[in-house]
Amino acid sequence: MDNDLLKRLVWSGLLAGFGALASMATARAAAIAYRKIYGEDPPE
Questions:
Q1: Distance CA 37, CA 31 (A)
Q2: Contact 42, 34 (CB under 8 A)
Q3: Closest CA to 33 of 6, 25, 20
Q4: Structure confidence at residue 7 (pLDDT)
Q5: Contact between 19 and 13 (Cβ < 8 Å)
Q6: Which pLDDT score is estimated for 1?
């Protein structure tokens, strides 16, 4: 992996992947908290 462009592409892919996972986890945690607080599904 001596190619700098390839390294940047891999890094960008990792950032995007972990960002998507973090976003999904945050939304799920917020929905769980909302259900516990209000006893109903969160608004869309």
A1: 10
A2: yes
A3: 25
A4: 94
A5: no
A6: 57
Please answer whether residues 31 and 42 qualify as being in contact, where contact means their C-beta atoms are separated by less than 8 angstroms: yes
The CA distance from 20 to 33, in Å, is 20
What whole-number distance in Å separates Cα of residue 29 and Cα of residue 35? 10
**pTM of the predicted model as reported, rounded to 2 decimal places:** 0.71
Local mean pLDDT, 10-residue blocks, the chain (44 residues): 88 97 97 97 92
Q: Residue type at 13?
A: G
**Closest by alpha carbon to 36, among 44, 23, 28?**
28
**Three-class SS state of 1:** coil
